[in-house]
Amino acid sequence: MPQHDYIELHQKRFGKRLDTEERARKKAARQPHELAEKAQNLKGLKAKMFNKERFKEKALMKKQMLAHEEKDIEVNVEDVKDGAVPTYLLDREQQQQSKVLTNMLKQKRQEKAGKWDVPIAKVKQMSEGEMFQVIESGKRKQKSWKRRINKVCFVPETFTRKPPKFERYIRPTGLRFKKANVTHPELKTTFSLPLLGVKKNPQSALYTTLGVITKGTVLEVNVSELGLVTQTGKVIWSKYAQVTNNPELDGCINATLLV
Amino acid sequence: MSYNFKSIRPVMPAKDMINVILSKTQRKTPTVVHPGYDISRIRGFYMRKVKFTQETIHEKIDAILQDFPKLDDIHPFYADLINVLYDKDHYKLALGHVHACRNVIDNIAKDYCRLLKYGDSLYRCKMLKRAALGRMCTTLKKLTSSLNYLDEVRKHLSRMPAINPFERTLLVTGFPNVGKSSFVNNITNANLDVQPYPFTTQNLYVGHSDYNFVRWQVIDTPGVLDHSLSERNPIEMQAITALAHLKACIMFFLDISETCSYSIDQQIALFKDLKPLFKNKPLLLVMTKIDIKKFEQLDPIDQQKLQDVIQSENVFYSQLSNKSGEGIALVKEKACNLLNEWRQNLKPEQLTGGNPNLLREESILQGVYIAQPKRVNQNRMPVIPQVVGKLNRPTLKDVQEQNGGAGVFSFPLQEHFLLDNPDWKYDAVPEIMDGKNIGDFVDADILQRLEELEKEEEMMDQAEVEDPDEDAREDMLLSTRDQVNKKREMIKEEHHMKMKQQVKLHRPNLEDAKEDFAKKGIDTTFLEQRAQKFAAKKIVQKQKRQQQSSDDSDDNDMDIEGNERNQRKGRDALSRSRSRLREISRSRSRGNKKVLTAQEQAMERMSKKIQRRRRNEAKAGDGDTKIDCKMPKHLFTGKSGIGKQSRR
């Protein structure tokens, strides 16, 4: 019975086939041809997958080649002496200065900007039809004052439903979310944080009160897990975050923390 | 219980698994959906995709989890071996990771199916499906390292020898390079690698040998060095695991020639070190390489040391040489007997680990009694009936021998012929006579048939003689036939006559009329006058016609009468359906073809053109506005619509 490295043992005892090297070489030589044939003849999903792989490989190869080329370039950085700048370098210096200037301007502008300068400033207006589904009620379904919210909602745990007779807006349990993936823009890390509430829905004040979460909505999230501390040394409990995706399409809430 | 680690199926790398799963989803679920479909149908379409993907992943992961042995369930020997080789913690973590991943994917599918229920458009459903599959794949991708590790483990496990922890086992151990593998090679056909350097054997190997009609498992272990347990490397640890867990006869190999580069003192130290592992097991101290140095040739101090060990530990010992083959069989026998003795004192349950199959086998082997029949008389002679001895006539074989043996002697078939006269037995019968095969003419009952034929003929002759008025009857028959024929002729003729009378038409002529009138007594002169008057008129008409024709022929230089008449007839026929212009009517009445001027030809053409449509519609004239049938039945029946076909 063959045990453990029996192939290696056999090779040790009896050697390899005499044409092993030749076969290996030929196989290697055949490979590009086989690849080319595949690239030309594959169809459908297989072709798609193949091409994707190939594209990745090629991109990697190009990157590597570029890296090698960059190594070869000699970079001469000379210190520019005061008052001895040749005319053709004058422009460059000015440019550098202007760059500094623009950077400064940007910084100033950023400082000036209000607290509510958020990553997503504008959102697409949503129609009422998109937001709500009309539910017909009454014995003969002739009344249509009930609405069901089609989007993802946040409903606080303390919320109790009104009796169905008075319930104007229905927020389905299937679309209620309790957690959001919040990215810290400076740390570039993402945390799954519990929601505390909807601060503002840009679509309308009604949606804010209903707790509807759409793209651009500002949420209040519980950041106590992150251990953020105020200047005075208190642990920050909650922070605002803006939703960056369409939760009803993605099935999750992605948000960036407003720092 | 034996374990089959070979049956573990290969573990796909995460990347391949994702590809397989996604393409399977694509292949095995419907692919066509349109925004116009009922929304519940669209939701169902995408939910099915999500669920199908989850199920496929679940199946794949389940297969992995089922295939890999659980350390708590398998024999402690294997559990320890897996711990030594692959690290128990790592192994458990990897399996746990895979298991957790399965749950995560199940939850993802559940969540997204729930969200899909609220999908209100195809786009939204599609995006949700996309997100679901994406998240499942991402989860799978995180398994990459675990799956790779598990596949490595599988590869190694599948090559592990099938060691049965409950079988009769000889376990060979000792320092490296003392001749353990050579011994296993000698008593089994394991064909292990034997090299003159230490640690040639790096794993446990198994060979099988026969002794006392049962199979014995011989396990070769890697060499063990003399240091503390914590310092031992994985190779040594395998040997230690086997020593600790297998209920086997342990054969400690001790190289007394010291060519293994370890002194006898060191080897004895190792023996003492390993002693706790040998506890409660049959143990045999084997001194090897006696072809180089025998026990008697050893230094007396070493001899004494060895003797001390043997006595103090109360160990059996033996000597062998793998090179010369001296003592190998003896050592094997001794070890096997030792183990057998030890096993006899144990209960079957202890030996087999409660495996019912092995238990039965063990109990049978321990309690087997081979029964032998009791023999009354030891030498049983063959019994030949007395009648047989009395036969004196020579057998056919004897006859054959007398008459020249096989090939020369021909078997006398005639002897057994059954004939009317026994004298005919040896008659020579020719096969062919007068160029004919006699066999063709042989008929056993030819005489009988001949007799029958003759009898029949005789009877017929008798019948002929008995009937005298045959002729009279024949005559009567003939006369009747003639009568019938005559009658038939007559009927035919009568019928013919009748027909002739019917067909004849009566056409009155002058003579007949005269006769008729005369009979009635009426004067017939007026008849004659009238007839003459008609005759004269006829002649005038004839003359007129002849004159006319001659005129026409003068006009046109055409004198073929028949042709002309035909043409006129055609014209007359046409005139009924066609009104013509005045000018042409004159020439028509003449019935002659006129040579037309160019203007006239053009006019004719135009008139034809004007009339063409009317003629096509079969109208009587311009004023004919009648519509015969507004809806012809044949055009308006049937299912076909206004119709693209030229036919109905």
Automatic annotation (TrEMBL), chain A:
PANTHER family xref list: RIBOSOME BIOGENESIS PROTEIN NSA2 HOMOLOG
Keywords attached to this Swiss-Prot or TrEMBL record, sorted alphabetically, are: Nucleus, Ribonucleoprotein, Ribosome biogenesis, rRNA processing
**Does the record bear rRNA processing in its keywords?**
yes
Q: Which GO terms describe its biological process?
A: maturation of 5.8S rRNA; maturation of LSU-rRNA
Q: Where in the cell is it found?
A: Nucleus, Nucleolus
Question: Any idea what this protein is called?
Answer: Ribosome biogenesis protein NSA2 homolog
Q: What does this protein do?
A: Involved in the biogenesis of the 60S ribosomal subunit. May play a part in the quality control of pre-60S particles.
Give the similarity note: Belongs to the eukaryotic ribosomal protein eS8 family. Ribosome biogenesis protein NSA2 subfamily.
Basic and acidic residues composition-biased segments: 1-24
The record's region (Disordered) falls at: 1-37
Subunit and partners: Component of the pre-66S ribosomal particle.
State the GO CC annotations. Answer: nucleolus; preribosome, large subunit precursor
Q: Which Gene3D superfamilies match?
A: 2.40.10.310
Automatic annotation (TrEMBL), chain B:
| Every OBG-type G domain range | 168-340
This protein's source sits in the domain of life called Eukaryota
Q: What SUPFAM superfamilies does the database record attribute to this sequence?
A: P-loop containing nucleoside triphosphate hydrolases
Q: Where is this region: Disordered?
A: 538-648
Q: Name one GO biological process term.
A: ribosomal large subunit biogenesis
Q: Record's Gene Ontology CC terms?
A: nucleolus
The GO molecular function terms of this record are: GTP binding; GTPase activity; RNA binding
- Output the CDD domains linked to this UniProt entry: NOG
Compartments (UniProt record): Nucleus, Nucleolus
Q: Where is the composition biased (Acidic residues)?
A: 551-561
Compositionally biased, Basic and acidic residues: which spans? 562-586, 617-631
* Keywords carried by this UniProt record: GTP-binding, Nucleotide-binding, Nucleus, Ribosome biogenesis
Q: What is its main location?
A: nucleus
Q: Which PROSITE patterns match?
A: G_OBG
Which Pfam families does the record match to this protein?
NOG1, NOG1_N, NOGCT
What this protein is reported to do is described as: Involved in the biogenesis of the 60S ribosomal subunit.
Sequence similarity = Belongs to the TRAFAC class OBG-HflX-like GTPase superfamily. OBG GTPase family. NOG subfamily.
What protein is this chain from? Nucleolar GTP-binding protein 1
